[in-house]
Amino acid sequence: MSALLEIKDLSKSFIKDNKKVNVLNKVSFNVKKGEFISIVGPSGCGKSTLLSLIAGFDKYDEGSILLEGKKILDPSPKCMMVFQDFNQLFPWKTVLENVLFPLNINKKDIELKKRIELAKEYLKMVKLEGYEDYYTHEISGGMKQRVAIARALVMKPDILLMDEPFGSLDIQTRTELQNILIQLWKETEATIVFVTHDIEEAVFVSDRIIAMGKSSNGIKDIIVNNLDRPRDRLSTSFIEKVKELHNKIKE
Ligand SMILES: Nc1ncnc2c1ncn2[C@@H]1O[C@H](COP(=O)(O)OP(=O)(O)OP(=O)(O)O)[C@@H](O)[C@H]1O
């Protein structure tokens, strides 16, 4: 596996009350094609900032972010983002129309009939077959997140960025969505960068876990997670890995 995303000496600060606040200081790591990476760390350590920079939503001060060797400077369908917020969907559009939306904007070369087929195929993959004509107020939070994931993945992005996508869900729905996401990741061979507060979630989904710290303004440690898949949350090896991560990220 070669590096798809290369982040090198990335620094970012914000100006607040005329003072410069350093959030990221010389952050470097690579993501290989097909890899599932999680980013964990305490609130305010810069996880969302890092994801926004990769998505091209914001500008960095120094360093570089390269996707297949090219600098990311602006948002593009190559990096799709799924947020935590249930309100990221268009409420005036149906479930199908939401998933169709990025295709209609970016993939006009595909004929409409095919675009609709594609959107339906991804809705089936997130187990929402039969809900195509529902509006967002008619579906649950977990279903909304599944629509958002289908809408992002239907674009076949080089990287899927996920900012605490399951953070507002109850534990049962969260577990169900983690399983769906892992299945989708395998089926679509996607590359995923996933921010989470939940250490167990990080151990369940990812190949490598990037632990960020607030005092370090960047990466504290990168933990390789080669537990066999499918992973058993109750196995001794899983629990040991969760403990290892807990100990490593203690501030
Ligand atoms: N636009 C902005 N202007 C000023 N400061 C900002 C801005 N965006 C983020 N920050 C600051 O950068 C720091 C990191 O914020 P960020 O949202 O990246 O953290 P996080 O690790 O994602 O936190 P959480 O887990 O709570 O979502 C915080 O101190 C925040 O106040």
Describe the structure.
This protein is α/β, with parallel strands linked by helices and 251 residues long. The chain has two domains: 3-78 and 157-250, P-loop containing nucleotide triphosphate hydrolases (Rossmann fold, 3-Layer(aba) Sandwich); 91-155, no CATH class. Helices cover 35% and strands 27% of the residues. The protein has seven helices and ten strands. The strands form two sheets. Strands 6-7-8-3-9-10 form a six-stranded mixed β-sheet, with helices on both faces. A four-stranded antiparallel β-sheet has the order 2-1-4-5, covered by helices on one side. Strand 7 (159-163), helix 5 and strand 8 form a beta-alpha-beta unit. Helix 4 (141-153) runs parallel beside helix 5 (171-188). Bound molecules: adenosine-5'-triphosphate. InterPro entries: AAA+_ATPase (IPR003593), ABC_transporter-like_ATP-bd (IPR003439), ABC_transporter-like_CS (IPR017871), ABC_transporter_ATP-bind (IPR050166), P-loop_NTPase (IPR027417). Keywords: ATP-binding, Nucleotide-binding, Transport. Pfam families: ABC_tran (PF00005). This is ABC transporter related protein. Residues 5-239 form the ABC transporter domain.
